[in-house]
Amino acid sequence: MASSIKVTLRKKPNKQGEYPLVLRITKDRRSTYLYTGQYIDLKYWDETNRTVRKSHPNAVRLNNLLLVKLAEANKTLLALTSEKNDYSSQSIKKEITTPLSKVTFKQMADAYLEELNANKKINRYNTDKARINHLLRFAQNNYLTFREIDEAFLRRFISYLKGEKKLSPRSVINTLIVIRTLYNRSIKQGVIERKHYPFGKDKIRIKFPETEKVGLNKDEIQAIEALDALTAQEAHVRNVWLFSFYLAGMRVGDVINIRWSDIYDGRLHYRMNKNAKLLSLKLPEKVIPIIGNYKEDKKSEDDFIFPEMKKANLKNARDVLAKTKTATKKFNKYLSRVADKAKIDKKLTMHIARHSFGNIAGDAIPLQMLQKLYRHTSITTTINYQANFMHQDTDDALDKVINF
Q1: Which of 314, 283, 310, 313 is nearest to 297 (CA)?
Q2: CATH level 2 (architecture), domain 228-357
Q3: Rounded distance, CA 45 to CA 10, Å?
Q4: For this protein, what is any one GO molecular function term (predicted)?
């Protein structure tokens, strides 16, 4: 059924006995009303012509106002019907009162952050909120629209991030990714047309800068395994690091959340914190003596193997994140001491366990298998990641040229 918008007088008087002048929006026999803020006595309303009678002292002004309101509403309705087939009288009213074209970047950003918070993606919430604030501080305008975020604006913003904020190239790219995400959402929701999209070929291109990933080699791993003159804390941190390494560079947040109940049938079964994927890995022989060191503190099958999360409020995502960050900072502090005792010059951190697995794997393991071990969603991610550690072809090519 066709939709319609008409001027009318709603028969619900206010305390002064005057009736509101409204626009009645009808779609599929369902109506909603948009108030103009003007009220008149019933005797001044001409129902046949849908106008204020000339006998009203402000008839000309009120009728002009109604004509303007009606024209604006019909213009919005025409635009809405050309873009969508499925809409209601309420959606028409909402578009008239709050046009999507006037939705600000901050409004879209606030809704996005609220969604992250509701889904308990607290780490993502914190990092993306900081990136969004970079743009708002640069613009100095909380009412910035997406139409204003054009290519020229973004180029100035990039210069600001690199110059005044002194962000690394990777941090600049991460900030642009958040803006691109919000821009894509705004296009999908009809806030702005795709023709204004500032990203892509010959516009703002988002390309990750190449970074060097340094991993330990076999000799360095064996040096860590062989250490015996360690303090209790250093020994614990080595255990956690080796546990991560032996299981294909498991992320620290996943390692400290492993429970005794996750190990059965000689395998480790767990759900990744980053993307909620379920994983099942054979438990390497080298892991068994490591977890054996913690059996005395085991209170139940549902208890954590490592102690870092035992006192965390698991119902509070922010407390879980805080405990994870504190644990990572502590681990990295003691790992530097472990590296000194093992006479390793490279910076030893929890994340290097992942790089070390990649370094030793090199090009000896098929990429599809590495994709499973790394828990990557896309094989492209695995290819790009492993490219940091696959050197045999280039080494052989170099030797062929210079060894004459």
Answers
A1: 310
A2: Orthogonal Bundle (1.10)
A3: 11
A4: DNA binding
Question: Is 0.90 surpassed by the pTM of this model?
Answer: no
Domain ranges across the chain: 4-98, 102-196, 228-357, 362-404
The CA distance from 311 to 327, in Å, is: 12
Burial of 278 (0-12, 13-18, 19+ CB in 10 A): exposed
Asked if residue 16 has pLDDT above 80, the reply is yes
> In a 10 Å sphere around its CB, with 0-12 CB exposed, 13-18 middle and 19+ buried, how is residue 124 labelled?
middle
pLDDT tens-digit map of 253-312: 999 999 999 999 988 888 776 556 677 888 889 999 999 999 999 999 999 999 999 999
> What are the Cα distances from residue 322, in Å, to 210, 311, 313, 348?
30, 12, 10, 22
Beta strands 30-40 and 19-27, pairing class? antiparallel
Q: How far apart are CA 220 and CA 261, in angstroms?
A: 32
Q: How far apart are the first and last CA of the chain?
A: 84
Report the DSSP beta bridge partners of residue 26: 4, 31
Identify whether the C-beta of residue 38 lies closer than 8 Å to the C-beta of residue 62: yes
Residues in CB range of 259: below 8 A, 6 or more apart = 301, 302, 303, 304, 305
pLDDT tops 70 at residue 39: yes
How many C-beta atoms surround the C-beta of residue 193 within 10 A? Answer: 13
CATH fold, domain 102-196, is DNA polymerase; domain 1 (1.10.150)
**DSSP H helices in 247-391:** 252-255, 287-292, 317-341, 352-361, 367-374, 379-386
